[in-house]
Amino acid sequence: MSTDQVAISLIIIITFGLFVWGRWRYDIVSVVALFMLVLTDKILGGKSSDLIADPAQIFMGFGHPAVITVAAVLIISRALRNSGVVDLIARQVKPFTKHKALHITSLSGVIAILSAFMNNVGALALMLPVTLKTAWEQKRSPSILLMPLAFASILGGMVTMIGTPPNIIIATFRKEQQLEMQAQALADASSSAAAYFEHQNISAETFEPAAFGLFDFSPVGGAIAILGVLFIALVGWRLIPKETNKKPGAQSLFSIDEYVTEIRIPEGCTFIGQTAGKIERLTGDKLTLFRLIHEEGRAVLFDPDRKIVEGDQFLARADPADLKEMMDEYGLRLTEEMRYRIDSLKDEDTTFMEVLVTPESPLVGRGRSYLRRQSSNRLILMAVARQDKPVHKRLGNVRFRVGDVLLLQGREEVLKSNIRSFYLLPLAEREIEVGVFSKVSYALLIFAGAILLSMWGILPTTVSFTGAILAYVFSGILPVRDLYKSIDWSVIVLLGAMIPLSNALQSTGATTLIADHVVNMTQSLPAWSILALIMVITMCLSDVINNAATALIMAPISVGIAMSMGVNIDPFLMAVAVGASCAFLTPIGHQCNALILGPGGYRFSDYWRMGLPLEIIIVVTGTPLIMHFWPL
C-alpha cells in the first residue's frame, strides 16, 4: 500500500468510528473528515499527494448534482405538502382503517407511493398525524402502525431516483465513473478501463456516459417495495413485541390526568404567603402551579408573583410518586371537584399539545431553558416521553433528542406559531385539511412536467426540478418564507463534505486495492454471491451510520470490484443503492426510524424483530432481481 492509500484508509476508518460513536452529529463528523483529508494532503506534500487534486476545489462537493438534487427534492416535498396533495390522499385512506390488516396495508401502501416521489422523511412526517388519528379513532395501538409506516416509507424511497439520497448519489456517481473510465480507456489502451470496455463489447470512442434515470431504479426497487409492503402488512406487524403495544386514549403517550391535579391551600399550609415561582424552587421542580381556579369555577392564568392565600385552589403538575409526599410535607389538600376541573381545562383558550422533535428542530441537544427563552416564556413544557418512558421529573435537566415527544401547554395560537418555528410535528388529533382541488392539480402538473423534462433528456434533473420550484414560488403554492425550511442542512453538509473523501478513495487507487483483495478472497464464489455480499455489507453499514455516507463510500468500492471481475458495474451500483436504503435493524440507521421511536413507545431492540427478516427477504429477492434487470 502506498502512503496515500494508508492515509485515506485511516481517515475512512476514523470517520466510520466517529459515526458509530455518535458523540457528534454526522454533519460535524463529515466536516472533521474533510479537514483531516486536507491536513493530511498538506503533510504528505500537497502536489506530490493524490488525496486532493486541487485544494482550491475542496468545497466543490457542495455544488455536486447529487447535493443540488437532494435539496430540490426536499423543497418540492414542501410544495406538495402545501398544495394539499397528501391531505387529499389521506382522506381517501380513512374508509380502509376499520380492519387491522387493511389499516396497516392501506397506510403502508400510501406512504410507499408518496415516498417514491418525495423525500421519505417528509412523507412520514405528513402521514404520522394521520396514522395516530386513525389509531385513536379505531381504538388501536399506534405501536402496530408506526413501525410498518416507517419501514414502508423507506421501501418506497427505493422505487425512483428521487425517493432517497442514496439513489441520487448512485445515479450521479454512475455518470462520473463512466466519464472517468472512458477518459482512461482512450488515454491508455492497456488500462483496466480499456479492458472493461472490451469485456462489455463497448466502443470507448462512441460510448456516451449517462446517469441512472428517474425510473431506472423502479424495476428492482418497485418489486422490492411491493414484496416488502406485503410482508409488513401480512406478517411483519405481528413480530412487533406485544409488550410494546398499548391502547390509545387513556394509555396514550401522555395521560394528562396522571400528572395534572387540582389542589387546595388549607389553613396552616406552608405555601401561604409564597409565590408560584418560589414554590417551584422550594419543591425542587416537583410541583408547578399553572392555573388559578376562581370561585365561579373557571381555571385561569394568574400572575406568578401573586402571593398565595388560604383557600386558593390551583391546577398543579406533579409526578404521582411525589404528590402524596408533598401533600403531607406542605399541608396540601385535593379538591373534591378535581376531575371536573381537569376536564374543563380542555375548553379554555390555553390547551395542551403533543409534538414530536424532528431532526431539523433547533431543540435537538437543547433543554427547557432554551424553549422558554425562544418562546418568550409563553410555552410550558409539561412532560417528555422518550422510548415509552415519559420524563416527568427534573425537566430542567432534560436535553431533547430526535423522536422525543413533548407535551406543551400554552395558548392555541402561540402553540401553533412556535411549533412551526421549532420545526416540531404536532401529534394531536386534527381534522384532515383537504387542499383546493385546482391547487392540487396544478402542483401535480408542475411536478409531472419536471419529471417528463428529466425523463426525455431535455433538461438535467437538477435544472428541471429548479424550474418546478420556481413555478411553485410564482404560483403561491410555496411562499418564499418556506423556501428553505424543509432543507435538511445537516444532510447537505454531510454530502458536500463526504464527496471529496469518496473521490480520494478513487484517486489514490484505494478502491482498486480493496477490490482486488475482495476478488482474490472470493474468486471461487459465483458473481451473484459477491453481489449479495456487497448488498449485505452496505446494509450493515447503513444500520449504524448515515445511508448517504454509506453510499458515497461503498459506490467506488463496488465499481472497483466489478472492474476487477470484468463485469458490468451497473448491478453492483444497484446493490449499493438497495443496501444503503435498507436500514431496518436500529432506530439510528435512518431518520424515519428515529421519528417513530417516541410516538410508538419502541425500544432499541424492537426494530430488528421485523427488520431482520425484512432485510433477509430483500437480499434473497433483490439479488436475482438485480441480475435479471441489470445483467453482468
Give an overview in words.
This protein is α+β, with helices and mostly antiparallel strands and 632 residues long. 56% of the residues lie in helices and 8% in strands. It has 26 helices and 10 strands. The strands form 2 sheets. A 5-stranded antiparallel beta sheet has the order 3-2-4-1-5, sandwiched between helices. It has a 5-stranded antiparallel beta sheet with strand order 8-7-9-6-10. Strand 7 and strand 8 form a beta hairpin. Helix 4 (85-93) runs antiparallel to helix 5 (100-117), helix 5 (100-117) runs antiparallel to helix 6 (120-137) and helix 10 packs antiparallel against helix 26. The radius of gyration is 28 Å and the shape is elongated. The two termini are 29 Å apart. Residues 248-259, 338-348, 390-394 and 429-437 have low confidence and may be disordered.
What is the first-to-last residue Cα distance? 29 Å
Largest sheet: 5 strands, antiparallel
Radius of gyration: 28 Å
Shape by Cα distribution: elongated
Beta-strand residue fraction: 5-15%
Portion of residues within helices: 55-70%
The total strand number stands at 10
Low confidence ranges: 248-259, 338-348, 390-394, 429-437
Q: Write down the overall mean pLDDT.
A: 81
By DSSP (H or I, 4+ residues per run), the number of helices equals 26
Derived from helix and strand composition plus strand pairing, the structural class reads alpha+beta
Side-by-side strand order of the widest sheet: 3-2-4-1-5
